[in-house]
Amino acid sequence: DYTIDNGPTVRALIAPMAANNVQSTIQSLSSYPTRYYTSATGVQAAQWLRDSWIGYAAGRSDVRVFLWSHTWAQPSVVARIQGTQFPNEAIVIGGHLDSTTSSGNAPGADDNASGVASFTETFRAAMATGYRPARTVFFIAYAAEEVGLRGSQAIATAFQGPTMRYKVVGKLQFDMTNYKGSTVDVGILKDASYTNAAQNTFLQSLITAYAQDIVPGP
């Protein structure tokens, strides 16, 4: 049910958000020479992000922050806020943590420290305002995206497996959010094979309703 009917909660979440916090997260993540999925600094960046999220979630027994181990060095980073009404339905908000190469510098400030920083600030605001969602919400910074979507694929496969008790009912991905490459502020991918048209329309409606100074893509 894509109805815009939760204005007070949304405005309460928007209020404490600050561009300086987004910039600080980008700077911290891009201070590592590379976040390549097999590199030591890629692992360190994941650990730093986990520790930051743990700090934001201090005192919240309904929130768990952890590293999701893979068969390569870099883990994905996960924060889970347990839902209050429909805990077995999940919303996933994510973006990739790794950068492109292990040779030379690959700080990846825009691709994709910026995407991770965007939803990190959302998570921070959710914790600061005491937000408790109806459905379980996952924030996930994926490892090993640049080498073939390996981290997200591993986690998506686990969600489809017999041991996971969550039905994913919505997914939002942030990638290169600090680069304005056109006249719009937010580009929305609408590939019919990989995105949901109703959710795309809802996202545009949310932007129009709550962030009138932002121009979404068509």
Summarize the helices and strands and which ones pair or pack:
Layout: H1 7-14, H2 19-30, H3 40-56, E1 63-68, E2 76-81, E3 86-96, H4 109-128, E4 135-142, H5 150-160, E5 167-173, H6 197-210
Parallel strand pairs: 3-4, 3-5
Antiparallel strand pairs: 1-2, 2-4
Order of helices and strands: HHHEEEHEHEH
Q: Please work out how many helical segments DSSP would assign.
A: 6
Major β-sheet, in short?
A: 5 strands, mixed
Low-confidence stretches: none
What is the percent of helical residues?
25-40%
The number of distinct β-strands equals 5
**What characteristic shape results from the CA principal axes?**
globular
Strand adjacency order, main sheet: 1-2-4-3-5
Structural class: alpha/beta
- Provide mean pLDDT, rounded: 95
Distance separating the two termini: 22 Å
β-sheet strand percentage: 15-25%
Integer-rounded radius of gyration = 17 Å
